[in-house]
Amino acid sequence: MPRLLDLFCGAGGAAVGYHRAGFDVVGVDICRTYLEIGVTRIGSFRPHLVVGDVENLPLASANAHAILAYESFHHIPNRRRAMASYDRVLRN
Predict the structure, then answer these.
(1) CA 90 to CA 92: how far, in whole Å?
(2) At a CB cut-off of 8 Å and minimum separation 6, what does 77 contact?
(3) CA atoms within a 13 Å half-sphere pointing along the CA-CB vector of 18
(4) C-alpha dihedral (38, 8, 56, 21), degrees to nearest 10
């Protein structure tokens, strides 16, 4: 199953849709409160939701097939560091 990273996933709404579409989804957001709302709202049917900073993704290298960071890149303070982090976690 292809792994998709949903960065800046917020409460995980889109991540659930990708999960239902057949992706192994890992949602990442820096705000624990958003993720806690997502866990409460989604219940036991949910993708993995992880608190993390996209400039230093807390994920293993070569772990994802694709990254989605919808309407979020302009919020990243150090975009070069974020891109290096994306590159590290993406499979070749």
Answers:
(1) 6
(2) 55
(3) 22
(4) 80
Kindly report the three-state secondary structure assignment for every residue of 8-75.
CCCCCHHHHHHHHCCCEEEEEECCHHHHHHHHHHHCCCCCEEEECECCECCCCCCCECEEECCCCHHH
Instruction: From first to last of the 92 residues of the chain, give the pLDDT tens digit.
Output: 899 999 999 998 898 889 889 999 999 999 999 999 988 888 766 778 999 999 999 999 999 999 999 888 899 999 999 999 999 999 98
- Residues in the chain, total: 92
Helix (H) or strand (E) holding 82: helix 79-89
- Please tell me the predicted confidence (pLDDT) of residue 45: 67
**What three-state secondary structure class fits 87?**
helix
Q: What's the pTM?
A: 0.89
